[in-house]
């Protein structure tokens, strides 16, 4: 049986898919096989486990309540957050699957959606050859600014500038979303699919299924904005600008269902900030500046794209392609909170297409192929190797991806205990929601009220720097029912905690203290 044309991949496309799968799958495979008595925590991020432990906390809460709350505060929080991926992972947890596998199950889906969306878009837009199309696919998936490794390897600029440039470089690294950021990967794959559906509904209104494409675009736009609000805002701005560009052309109205999909999801997030103190807490201005030295990380691909830009666009697809970059820039500048730089994610796709077009317009004959190969290698290989180096450095710097066996046993015990908040230092507190379902007094920095003072207080407690009366006051003020102490805590701290406890449960070098009577 012969596959439909849209499912058939060339050898070069298959090679890209294989490379993407290896890049996505090798780190978690190595993390599992190198555990050496420790427990892999299911986090698979270039910068460690923080974000993934937040996602898994939502999964754990969704497994019990369907709607998730903020478990990174000991104060009660409303269950208001509905997330399609986390609800499905929560269902897997309810069926008995471990929290790590319930979340990591999205890796194959993220791989397929990201690759398929990118390939479909690059096949549809005007590119002069199959080689140019493959180059566009590679750049779209694997672009990581070569400025970041240049600054790091050559020792140029200060440490802060190198770190910021690396962070912005990572924003453009779409393949890197498969390292634990599965909602982002799926949203980045659905974004070009939505654009294709809207464009098809407008450009071919008399074709069978045009109305159905418009409503499919609405569903895809809803998911894009739901999974990744920053991409949803960029998509919304693109669609509104497209309708305005068309003026009174009624065909452009086919974009309105997708506009409604974006507005529905973005409106939901706006409501969350009104009805939940936890969500309102996260909507604070970022201290990361909109402009700075690190913006040069965007320069290589942006400059390469300029020769390929032509302002004349006769189709909805070409207009949306032109509008993509300015829409992202507007979203980036307009937002002043909630990690506004996430609006830059996914730009390697439109910029990569313009860059490939520019090469084919400037160079001719055999030069085109040579420049395409050389340019693609420069824009992808150094950055990808550097991203792997940063990943390795994070791995070697500490236990960002593992739990010690005794700590895992203590968390497993807490997961079977009656409800009650847990007091622990950050290294263990960040695990409590995902691995036990309990709230934690100290955890994710963005979702914990007064994070930095709490972290300092917890360090003083578990390092034994607090007098018995101060220990008692802190435990009472935290509202915790349990205190979790890990290996390496000061004996003074453990003795003072034991004096307060109604019961003590030891798991090797980890200990759980009951500090309040059962309800």
In short:
The chain has 519 residues and is mainly alpha-helical. It is built from 23 helices and 6 strands.
What are its keywords?
519 residues; four-stranded mixed beta sheet; mainly alpha; 23 helices; 6 strands; two-stranded antiparallel sheet; 2 domains; single chain
How would you describe this protein?
By secondary structure, the protein is mainly α. It has two domains: 107-397, no CATH class; 402-514, no CATH class. Helices cover 61% and strands 4% of the residues. The protein is built from 23 helices and six strands. The protein has helices spanning 11-33, 50-65, 84-94, 99-104, 106-124, 130-142, 147-154, 159-171, 182-203, 210-227, 229-246, 256-275, 277-282, 299-305, 316-334, 348-362, 366-397, 405-415, 426-429, 432-436, 451-462, 468-478, 491-500; strands spanning 39-40, 402-403, 422-423, 482-485, 503-507, 510-514. The strands form two sheets. A four-stranded mixed β-sheet has the order 3-4-6-5. Strand 5 and strand 6 (510-514) form a beta hairpin.
Mind sketching the topology for me?
Elements: H1 11-33, E1 39-40, H2 50-65, H3 84-94, H4 99-104, H5 106-124, H6 130-142, H7 147-154, H8 159-171, H9 182-203, H10 210-227, H11 229-246, H12 256-275, H13 277-282, H14 299-305, H15 316-334, H16 348-362, H17 366-397, E2 402-403, H18 405-415, E3 422-423, H19 426-429, H20 432-436, H21 451-462, H22 468-478, E4 482-485, H23 491-500, E5 503-507, E6 510-514
Parallel strand pairs: 3-4
Antiparallel strand pairs: 1-2, 4-6, 5-6
Helix pairs in contact: 1-5, 1-6, 2-3, 5-6, 5-9, 6-16, 6-17, 7-8, 9-10, 10-11, 10-12, 11-12, 11-15, 14-16
């Amino acid at each position: 049986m012969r596959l439909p044309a849209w499912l058939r991949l060339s050898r070069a496309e298959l090679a890209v898919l294989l490379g993407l799968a290896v890049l996505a799958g090798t780190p978690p495979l190595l993390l599992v096989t190198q555990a050496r008595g420790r427990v892999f925590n299911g986090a698979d991020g270039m910068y460690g486990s923080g974000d993934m432990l937040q996602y898994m906390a939502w999964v754990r809460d969704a497994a019990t309540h369907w709607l998730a709350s903020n478990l990174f505060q000991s104060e009660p929080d409303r269950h208001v957050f509905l997330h399609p991926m986390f609800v499905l992972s929560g269902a897997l947890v309810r069926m008995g699957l471990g929290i790590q596998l319930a979340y990591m199950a999205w890796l194959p889906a993220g791989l397929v959606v990201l690759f398929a969306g990118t390939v479909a878009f690059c096949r549809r837009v005007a590119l002069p050859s199959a080689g140019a199309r493959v180059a566009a696919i590679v750049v779209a998936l694997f672009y990581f600014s070569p400025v970041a490794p240049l600054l790091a390897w050559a020792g140029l600029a200060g440490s802060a500038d190198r770190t910021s440039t690396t962070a912005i470089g990572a924003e453009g690294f779409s393949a890197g979303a498969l390292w634990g950021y599965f909602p982002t990967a799926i949203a980045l794959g659905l974004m070009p699919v939505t654009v294709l559906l809207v464009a098809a509904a407008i450009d071919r209104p008399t074709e069978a299924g045009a109305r159905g494409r418009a409503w499919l675009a609405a569903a895809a736009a809803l998911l894009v904005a739901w999974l990744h609000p920053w991409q949803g805002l960029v998509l919304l701005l693109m669609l509104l600008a497209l309708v305005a560009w068309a003026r009174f052309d009624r065909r452009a109205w086919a974009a309105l269902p997708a506009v409604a999909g974006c507005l529905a999801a973005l409106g939901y997030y706006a409501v969350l900030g009104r009805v939940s103190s936890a969500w309102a807490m996260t909507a604070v201005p970022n201290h990361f500046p909109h402009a700075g030295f690190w913006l040069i990380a965007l320069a290589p691909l942006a400059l390469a794209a300029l020769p390929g830009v032509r302002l004349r666009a006769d189709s909805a697809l070409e207009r949306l392609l032109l509008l993509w970059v300015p829409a992202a820039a507007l979203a980036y500048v307009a937002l002043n909170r909630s990690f506004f730089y996430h609006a830059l994610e996914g730009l390697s796709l439109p910029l990569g297409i313009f860059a490939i077009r520019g090469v084919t317009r400037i160079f001719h004959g055999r030069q085109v192929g040579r420049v395409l190969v050389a340019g693609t290698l420069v824009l992808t290989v150094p950055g990808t190797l550097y991203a792997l180096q940063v990943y390795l450095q994070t791995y070697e710097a500490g236990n960002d991806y593992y739990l010690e066996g005794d700590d895992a046993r203590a968390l497993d015990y807490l997961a079977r205990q009656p409800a009650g908040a847990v007091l622990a230092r950050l290294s263990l507190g960040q695990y409590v929601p995902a691995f036990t379902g309990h709230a934690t007094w100290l955890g994710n920095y963005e979702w914990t009220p007064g994070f930095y003072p709490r972290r300092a207080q917890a360090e003083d407690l578990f390092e034994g720097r607090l007098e018995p009366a101060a220990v008692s006051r802190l435990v009472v003020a935290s509202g915790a029912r349990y205190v979790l102490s890990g290996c390496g805590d000061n004996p003074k701290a453990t003795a003072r905690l034991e004096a307060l406890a109604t019961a003590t449960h030891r798991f090797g070098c980890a200990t759980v203290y009951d500090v309040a009577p059962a309800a």
